[in-house]
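Hi L.,

You mentioned the student needs an example of a multi-chain input paired with its predicted structure. This one should do, with 500 residues in total across all chains.
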Amino acid sequence: MHNQRTNPIEIDKEEFRQIGYRLIDDISNFFDHIHEKPVTYNRSPSEIQKIIGDVPLPENGSEASTLTYKAAELLLNNSLFNGHPKFLGYITSSAAPIGALADLLAASINPNVGAHILSPIATEIEKQTIKWLCDFIGVSSDYGGILVSGGNMANFTAFLAARTAKTSSSVKENGIENSKSKYTVYCSKTTHTWIEKAVILFGLGTKSIRWIATDDSNKINISILESTIKMDIDNNCTPLMVVGTAGDVSTGVVDNLSDIAAISKKYNLWFHVDGAYGAPAAIVPELEKLFKGIEEADSIALDPHKWLYSPLEAGCTLVKNPRYLTDTFSSHPEYYNFSKSEDEVAQNFYEYGLQNSRGFRALKVWLSLQQLGRSGYEKLISEDIQLSKLLYSLADKHHELEAISQNLSITTFRYIPKDSARNVEYLNKLNETLLDVLQAGGEVFLSNAIVNQQYCLRACIVNFRTSAKDIEEIIEIVAREGNMVHSELSKTYKGNTSKI
Ligand SMILES: *Cc1c(COP(=O)(O)O)cnc(C)c1O
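Structure written out for the whole complex:
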């Protein structure tokens, strides 16, 4: 230690090693025994507050070792574990263990990946990661992009590039409100809520969204999309972009991307693909047809912290013509001294997105892509899909369960009591109560979807720890708990439970 200054923040080498080794022991034990833990301890906010204690900001410091061990103990005993093999809720994956090591390493070096000069190797690693992600999902590596915090930010970043590309150049100076055009954006009713946040934040307003109905297979209805665009043009609106979803959050449906690409081309609109959840499945050769058209997208959002199993947070925006990113985000304040070299232009990531100082998110993604390779990811993603199909078929065969939908790795199903209590309202209430009971129970964690007005249980498998045995056990747990909930609920239910 060459630091002459004594200070309370430095940890000396021996102590750092000891804390680190013990922490690594705790974490590796955690990974090894995660399946024996409950998925969640289901403690209330006030119980948790009691555990951490209502203490003021400490006046004086404490020992790093004690604090670290205590933090590990707190987290290991009070968390919801999305790495548990029976966690199939929302779209939060089990995190690749190499990602934990990557984050430790990244935080130790702490490069600021806003500018090349501050992060020479980290910047190049992020650039390579982005190229590999293009290859992964089957688009040209001429796309440029940036890693961001997640799917929402990835979609926002792309949305802003689209706004730059498709609005008149005066919008940059005068703002949307003062522009002569009424801009409109198109997406199916299944589109994730990010689109609402985007139009509110970026000045178009919620009335700019044209929610296009879906067809029988729950994909965006292409003829309604086209007629709506035509009508808007006739009414002096300026259509700006179409959003296609590659794997919708509720049921995993992939829109007809080629058809959307053709319409976008015909009307000169920006074609954005929200592949936050589903895009990585494009690596599976059998699904090539499903994702056809993604290679024509002007921009794509994907989310390594979902189906690439990166720890939170990692999202990614890809843009076919990356100039639209720099046109949107680049500025050159006088206090930056970043781009000097004449012969070799260094890429500064602050010019590609909303952030200025940026962490080294790319490392965990870059390392996982190498640890698994294309074949490793193809295997895991295909297996997740197979398990989702297994869940569907077991639910379909079970006399008290009804299988509703299965796309990519999302299955929806519900509990239907044997004794013919099939009124719609009761079944919705029953399955909603059942989900609450299951989530609180800690044996399995599912979430919900509404499919054709039916309240369904929804399992999304982006979990390399889930096995066929887990799926079989989940079926048993849901049937058992469903039965219990029904016997309680049917006693008090006021409506008619006896007829369809
Ligand atoms: C998850 C998801 C998002 C939002 O991503 P975050 O990482 O949660 O911000 C957006 N769109 C789709 C289709 C998603 O699945």
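You could point out the following to them. The domain at 373-499 is CATH 3.90.1150.170 (Aspartate Aminotransferase, domain 1). The CA atoms of residues 216 and 452 lie 11 Å apart.

Best wishes,
N.
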